[in-house]
Amino acid sequence: MFAGLTALVGGLTWYICRKQGRRSDASTREYFLANRGLSWVFVAGSITLTNLSTDQLVGMNGNQMFLLAWWELSAVAGLLILAKIFLPIYYKYQCTTTTELLERRYNSHYVRATVAALFLMTNVLIYLPMVLYTGSLFMQSMFGLEVSIPLIAIFLAVVGSAYAILGGLRAVAVSDTLSGVGLLSMGIVIAYLALAAIDFDLSDIPAERLTLIGSNESPIPWHTLLTGMIFIQVFYWSTNQAITQRAMASKTVREAQKGVLVAAAIRLCLVPIMVVVPGVCAYKLYGDVGDAAFGKLVGDVLPPYLSGVVAAVMMAAALTTFNSVLNSSAALYVCDLHQRYINPECNVRRLNTLISMSFVVVSLSLLPFYIGADSIVNLVQQLNGLFSMPILSAFIVGLMFRGVHAAAVIVAVSLGVGLYAVFTFVWTPLHYIHLMFITLWCCVGSSLIINRYVFGGSVQLAFALPSWTGVVAKT
To answer: What is the pLDDT along the chain (475 residues), one digit of tens a residue?
Structure first.
């Protein structure tokens, strides 16, 4: 069953991509934007599956508390901001990468390259190894495999990279959507079976694991929802290349917005159930077992005839996120760095293959760091702060102000990375979500101060919001 369903997704992906056709020039637009040909169905499916992977299902359920649902509920706001604010701007400037918007706003390719390098560090050092680890951990936990996590990760990396290298964004988006149907269906089934395993009785579970109002000692204190949480979501959903690349691949902004809004509805109605209910049920059954909770629960409550189906959709979840992040990383390198500074007439197909393989090797080498983590979700969110808030500050300043010197923004972004590193590794006076909020506005303030007192520039408030309708992408 497992092999059959995996092969079926691969076969259908090949058929749909072949039917839609591919331009023969192997251009960046074909590889990284599917030649602007994604319908809203594939935009919604790919955005959903790029985010919903084993790190959510394994990591969030590993916390074994309802409180973690806030990551998904607040994500709805991030998707709405993407649809109504950022997407029209990306389409107005005909962006291939999100960082291209920064070049247009600051009239500088240096700020584009700086932020692209930070995005690449985030993808290659955090997201890719994290997805490989959580996917491997689930497969090992569910089936009781004696195979080591690194060996399972190598298998996932090889299969996942094949989509990104051979098929580009079109193949990635199609496989995401096909896999998404199965993953969402089985995720709800698993949540139901988990509740049935405890007779739908949540008694004897500590109150702090059932509440949505986090205490100061919880992973998400309630007051962090008023500070850094929304900006974390804006960064991830509205500026992160791995997400927005799908939304920038439709012919019109209306088509893209439709897909993003459908993804938001899925996020609101289905995903929170999938990422917290099984973990809480696992706490009642096994106690505090951490990140192994989801795999152990699935292995125990799932009927044997569905085990192959769940294994296939879980592997698909890991693969779709991995190949999506890999494809977006290649886009950042090729479009923002290589074509600008090395060879503007490069062979995109060959370069995409070489750089993708390099990223895979680096991500595999970092697996030991993630294997020793206490909580994969909390670790990833903390590490994200090193780059996410400084990057977001560049977008905020670029969209809200005119006349800011690019060098001032680059310096402020660099200072922000250093500031959050101090908060993370040296001095942590507040919850890391609060510290991300502080880092963001320190970066924004630093940009304006450096621009004024170092470069002698003056700024004008000029929020760049184009019309929400009628913007058509050039093909």
So the answer is: 555 666 666 677 666 666 655 444 456 776 687 778 889 999 998 898 888 877 788 889 999 999 999 999 999 999 999 999 999 999 999 998 999 999 999 999 999 999 999 999 989 988 899 888 888 887 787 667 788 899 999 988 988 787 667 666 677 777 778 777 888 999 999 999 999 999 999 999 999 999 999 999 999 999 999 999 999 999 999 999 888 998 999 999 999 999 999 999 999 999 999 999 999 999 999 999 988 898 889 889 989 888 778 877 877 777 778 888 898 999 999 999 999 999 998 888 889 899 999 999 999 999 988 886 666 666 776 778 889 999 999 999 999 999 999 999 999 999 999 999 999 889 999 999 999 999 999 999 999 999 999 999 888 887 655 444 344 444 3
In a domain, 463, yes or no: no
Q: Is residue 291 part of a domain?
A: yes
Shared domain for 342 and 391, answered yes or no, is no
One domain for residues 269 and 398: no
Three-class DSSP category at 208: helix
Number of domains in the chain: 2
Please check whether residue 281 is in contact with residue 297, taking contact to mean a CB–CB distance below 8 angstroms. Answer: yes
**Among 420, 115, 94, CA closest to 240:** 115
Measured CA to CA, the distance from residue 437 to residue 434 in angstroms comes to 5
Verify that 325 and 241 share a domain, yes or no.
yes
Rounded to 5°, angle at Cα 384 from 59 and 327: 85
Determine, yes or no, domain membership for 367: no
Domain interval for residue 410: 385-455
- If asked whether residues 346 and 431 sit together in one domain, one would say no
Single out the residue of 276, 287, 292, 291 nearest to residue 376, CA to CA: 291
Q: Are residues 131 and 256 in the same domain?
A: yes
pTM confidence score: 0.88
